[in-house]
UniProtKB/TrEMBL annotation:
UniProt-annotated binding residues for Zn(2+) 1: C439, C442, C479, C482
Sequence similarity: Belongs to the helicase family. PriA subfamily.
UniProtKB keywords: ATP-binding, DNA replication, DNA-binding, Helicase, Hydrolase, Isomerase, Metal-binding, Nucleotide-binding, Primosome, Zinc
Entry keyword annotation includes Glycoprotein: no
Residue sites binding Zn(2+) 2 per the record: C448, C451, C466, C469
Organism: Roseinatronobacter thiooxidans
Official protein name in the record: Replication restart protein PriA
Superkingdom of the source species: Bacteria
Function statement: Initiates the restart of stalled replication forks, which reloads the replicative helicase on sites other than the origin of replication. Recognizes and binds to abandoned replication forks and remodels them to uncover a helicase loading site. Promotes assembly of the primosome at these replication forks.
Cofactor note: Binds 2 zinc ions per subunit.
């Protein structure tokens, strides 16, 4: 696809891609006034009207006389060649049909409808003749928005008054109504404002990154630095360089709850807040963001992985913060890895990528070692802080009664910190109260009726929850298998149970739990984090959500309840994940002016991963992980693709799996092997039986083409679903 402008005159055939699952571009006649290539259009499809994009020349096989005309061109900047090419490349890479890619790129409300303007209210100089408390509230709202216009609805909601009060103020002349563009541009970010006084190390890294941005060419850099070393400060300077060139920048964060702290830092650095794109923003903000990004009227976007598919006009920099985070892999719908696709998009847009992490993924580490990515290290924490001292607590030597998880040694350490007026964090990566509910009479384990998974007790919700499908059920009073009464007992710890133990051990302490499922909304979670950071909790109990870059200045002790959790798994990345998680969580301790310490409870203090965690010899750890995977020809030294077949019954899925495994010639042709079919580790989810195949190919093999050729001859029986997961991260 070239950047050359192409125009289709009214009545000439052109190809239109829609988000409908048709698998191909359809031919239409260009509408009245013609259409540019890339134009967003509304087109008839059967009895319906659908949104599409003029994708290119007509395919031509359909008789011209029968072609229908595009209805109209929509009010949006045409999709640029760069984004069209990017969508096509991601489609090829992930073996996803193009319409599904277009759906990702058009997740914006009202694209096909809605007026371009709306009524906004502004404050006038005249006070209303009669002032009431409600009217005062309305007028006060404007102070908080710097005089910007607000819709009547927004105004009434912000003031907490009825719409009648607002109307009354308009009639009284205290508010003025004006037509305004529906989507307002974002306030300008000023890259020339002064940033932090960087240390020598930081300044050097910032200069290298800024020079990369100024080159106007593609490049990816791993920015590795311990938590608190100033990675954010450093990449803010790269963003400044990008904005100064008039190009756009995108920052991806793994967790919505992290955005508010980052937005505040952007505002401090550049004088205004950037655009936001994630599931926590309102529909009208989403629409504003999408359109303004396309018009170049949003300089910086902070977002979740799907922000990669925004219609940037000139994307000069993508920062992927906490690049190792597993949430960057989309596990439903289009199965893509946002970190890898960020690299692809930047390469196509002529932009830079910064992958920031204290504990990079092995893939990124290996790419840096191979010279594919540049690497910058920030080795010291900012200021007088040192890294926390790390020690193991050998659980074999501790006197720990059943049903308790805080060892006496950890208990003493926490008590000492509380006495000093500091905070302690107890980390356990398990949501809920107890992972298992068992009948003491017959041994029955309570399982989900639709999944091959145990139900997890959540006392906070007073229900059992399936962590696979989300189904919930009341706690049964009697055993579903043998009918015994009062014999169902929780087994094993979850954060809620740990909270119970903490309250018993430290009755006077204020205990706060941070677990994603305890909060109805991202905002509630944000608020809880702010409360903790403000010092209104003594003991914090958290799942992996606490590992992700929150700043708790008064936190000086981290206790890892069970470092062995996850070590035993057969998952390819089990060791890597435990290493990253425990190092990250430990990094929460001692960020301000107080030294921190991390105590790691384990029954295997001599396990190589635990030893690497404690010694902090990261390079040695990665080298040994890398060597192991190299020996097995596993990623990043080989390639994998998962194939998941799911169906209401097991047999048809297995049958197709067996046929696929037998007809593996296209895979053998590239030196790839197929393993399976085998029941997936979670053999049933939401009532669907799941069968897996795993394709393993040499590094550099043309895997996607071979897989497409391999799957093509097989028709899917009714009700059977097949999905391909290129570079799988999870194997459930
Ligand atoms: P990281 O992203 O590596 O965790 P941050 O950039 O968040 O590190 O820095 C940690 C803390 O130290 C932040 O509060 C940050 O504002 C502060 N900090 C880092 N470098 C500097 C600097 N050069 N001047 C002032 N404050 C700094
Ligand atoms: Zn379930």
């Amino acid at each position: 696809m070239s950047d050359a402008l192409e125009f289709f005159d009214e009545g000439t055939p052109c190809g239109v891609l829609t988000a409908e699952p048709l698998g191909r571009v359809l031919d239409y006649l260009a509408p009245e006034g013609g259409a540019w290539i890339g134009a967003f259009v509304e087109a008839p499809l059967g009895p319906r009207r659908v949104v599409g994009v003029v994708w290119g020349a007509a395919e031509g096989s359909f008789p011209r006389a029968k072609l229908r005309a595009v209805i109209r061109v929509l009010d949006a900047v045409p999709m640029r060649a760069e984004l069209r090419a990017f969508l096509a490349r991601v489609a090829d890479y992930t073996l996803t049909p193009l319409p599904a890619m277009l759906r990702l790129a058009t997740r914006v409300p009202d694209l096909g409808s809605g007026p371009a303007t709306r009524k906004l209210l502004y404050r006038t100089d005249s006070a209303p003749p009669r002032m009431t408390e409600a009217r005062e509230k309305v007028l006060a709202v404007f102070d908080g928005f710097g005089g910007a216009g607000l819709t009547p609805g927004e105004l009434a909601q912000a003031a907490g008054v009825s719409s009648g009060v607002v109307r009354g103020l308009v009639q009284a002349g205290a508010l003025l109504e004006r037509e305004a563009l529906r989507d307002q541009p974002y306030p300008r970010l000023d890259p020339a404002r002064a940033g932090a006084n960087l240390t020598d190390d930081q300044a050097q890294a910032a200069a290298v990154l800024a020079a990369g941005v100024q080159s106007g060419e593609y490049g990816t850099t791993l920015l590795k630095g311990v938590t608190g070393s100033g990675k954010t400060e450093v990449y803010l300077e790269a963003i400044a360089a990008c904005l100064a060139l008039g190009r756009q920048a995108l920052v991806l964060l793994p967790e919505i709850a992290l955005t508010s702290e980052f937005l505040t830092r952007v505002e401090a650095r550049f004088g205004a807040r950037p655009a936001e794109w994630h599931s926590g923003v309102t529909l009208s903000e989403r629409r504003r963001c999408w359109h303004m990004v396309g018009q170049g009227a949003a300089q910086l976007v902070v977002g979740a992985r799907s922000a990669l598919f925004l219609p940037f006009r000139d994307l000069g920099l993508i920062v992927v913060d906490e690049e190792h985070d597993s949430s960057y892999k989309q596990e439903e719908g289009v199965l893509y890895h946002a970190r890898d696709m960020a690299v692809l998009r930047a390469a196509m847009a002529g932009g830079q990528v910064i992958l920031a992490s204290a504990t990079p993924s092995l893939e990124t580490w290996a790419n840096a070692r191979a010279g594919k990515y540049a690497r910058l290290d920030l080795s010291a924490r900012f200021g007088p802080n040192t890294l926390p001292e790390m020690r193991a607590i050998d659980l074999r030597a501790e006197d720990l009664p059943t049903g308790r998880w805080v060892s006496p040694t950890l208990q003493r350490a926490v008590t000492a910190r509380l006495a000093a007026g500091e905070q302690a964090l107890l980390f356990l990566n398990r949501r809920g109260y107890a992972p298992l509910t068992i009948c003491r009479a017959c041994g029955h384990q309570v399982e989900c009726s639709d999944c091959d998974a145990r139900m997890v007790e959540h006392r906070f919700l007073k229900r059992l929850v399936c962590h696979q499908c989300g189904a919930t059920a009341p706690m049964p009073a009697t055993c579903p298998a043998c009918g015994a009464e009062d014999r169902l007992a929780p087994v094993g710890p979850g954060v809620e149970r740990l909270e119970e133990e903490a309250r018993a051990l430290w009755p006077d302490a204020r205990v706060a739990v941070l677990s994603s499922d305890l909060f109805g909304s991202a905002r509630a979670l944000k608020d809880q984090i702010a409360v903790i950071a403000g010092g209104e909790a003594d003991i914090i109990i958290g799942t992996q959500i606490v590992a992700k870059g929150h700043n708790f200045p008064n936190l000086t002790l981290v206790g890892v309840i069970d470092a062995d959790l996850g070590l035993s798994g057969s998952d390819l990345r089990a060791a890597e994940r435990v290493f990253q998680l425990v190092r990250q969580v430990s990094g929460r301790a001692g960020r301000a002016d107080k030294p921190g310490r991390a105590l790691v409870q384990t029954s295997q203090p001599d396990h190589p991963v635990i030893r690497a965690i404690l010694s902090g010899e990261e390079e040695a750890f990665w080298q040994s992980e890398s060597a192991q995977r190299e020996g097995l020809r596993m990623p990043p030294h080989g390639r994998l693709a998962g194939v998941i077949l799911s169906a209401p019954a097991m047999e048809p899925a297995f049958e197709l799996g067996t046929r696929l495994a037998q007809a593996d010639a296209p895979l053998r042709a590239i030196g790839a092997q197929v393993f399976g079919p085998a029941p997936a580790p979670i053999a049933r989810i939401r009532g669907m039986h799941r069968v897996r195949l795993l394709v393993k190919a040499p590094k550099g093999a043309a895997l996607q083409g071979a897989i497409a050729a391999w799957l093509k001859p097989h028709n899917l029986p009714r009700g059977l679903r097949l999905s391909v997961d290129i570079d799988p991260q999870s194997f459930y």
